[in-house]
Amino acid sequence: MEKIIQQFLSEVNQKNQNEPEFMQAVTEVAETVIPYIVTQDIYYGQNILLRMVEPERVVSFRVAWIDDNEEIQVNRGYRIEMNSAIGPYKGGLRFHPSVNLSILKFLAFEQVFKNALTTLPMGGGKGGSDFDPKGKSDTEVMRFCQSFMTELFRHIGPNKDIPAGDIGVGGREIGYLFGQYKRLKNEFSGVLTGKGVSWGGSLIRPEATGYGVVYFIDEMLKANNDGLKGKSITISGSGNVAQYATEKCIHLGAKVLTLSDSSGYIYDKDGIDEEKLKYIMNIKNTRRERISLYTKKYSKAKFYANANPWSVKCDIAIPCATQNEVKLSDAKNLIKNGCYTIGEGANMPCTADAIHLFTKNKLLYAPGKASNAGGVAVSGLEMAQNSLRYTWTREVVDGKLKEIMSDIHSSCVKYGADKDHINYLKGANIAGFVKVADAMLAQGVV
Ligand code: NDP
Q: In what order do the strands lie in the sheet with 72-83?
């Protein structure tokens, strides 16, 4: 088996050299899915995984724009259209200086499995730019978004490819992108999700990824006759996913001790309550400042510069910042301090060796493609509401989100049950694969 997996990976690696994040995501899937494929006559010999690692289309383009000093700036834009077997391409846009082809291909590949797990009809894609919104004025961000959309608009559409937000792309950016698309096409359509509620957005969409992660963790705990009430939680990041994961933990009676950004983390041993969270939302979303400001208002809390929160004692850790933020040494610290549950809010936040350690020690480990699928699920619900020209209430959308997270949990259990343990990574990868592979087989060699 090991030989078959290595042969496959070496073939993929040859075509995708210098793409470490993409290879990391493919390796994680290959190690769990290939042993399943060889036992299934319908999939074996069809080269389905080899077809799935090849994007259907990759677009790369120049984004030129003028900054506030009237200097011309040039960034690179991308859209990866990975797989459309079960629906139009769907996945976020990331604006961050680290963005490159490898990172977007890993994200697009993960997205294919994640979207399949939601059971909604969405294929997988991802895009973005190496543009850094940090420190830019609103008008600079607007000019960049307009230039970016002036090329992207010809590749997307409500039945073709429907982008959304990700790191660096929130409500403000989606607004500017949508405005430019509408102007270029002269049509008002559901071409982007994460829109404002008064112009086609869904209630609960901003909350969905963070809430969904916590619903998924709750399902894992319930399956072990356990619950969130009274648990201590460490969370990284302080953006969209981290904020709403914190809110839902507070609602369910847990104590959130940490949040972070790229400058370091804050530790509040009394726990971050709703009022404190509101202040963090103000710092990050309105003032667009650093998380360290928190300790100016709440002086009992401490700020640790250039560090992550994984050395803080907790029951549950929820990484919600970025890829590979939990390394092997962090995993060792978490286990040493008694942490027994990891729910990934970010995409691929744990390195491969950290995951192996969690699995070896039988921690409850939820991979992002399952646990953070709530965001894209509610994006799917936003698309449904746009088609119906109708708006569901908060309660209806939240109810559907809970049901979807519970169903994803059941799919992971179905395909991930080992002798005395549920391997959620294996379960998520196989469940996602089966749905996409069946559609690809039905549609022939395309
Ligand atoms: P935001 O841009 O709202 O927030 C990102 C947060 O992570 C910020 O606090 C940011 O700090 C921090 N961060 C980003 N890059 C780094 C880095 N290299 N090192 C340390 N900290 C970093 O993004 P989201 O909350 O939307 O996304 C967070 C993660 O969740 C990403 O992995 C994303 O792919 C994933 N995700 C998001 C979904 C969504 O619906 N938004 C859906 C599913 C997954 P700073 O402010 O200093 O930059």
A: 57-66, 72-83, 124-129, 89-95, 161-164
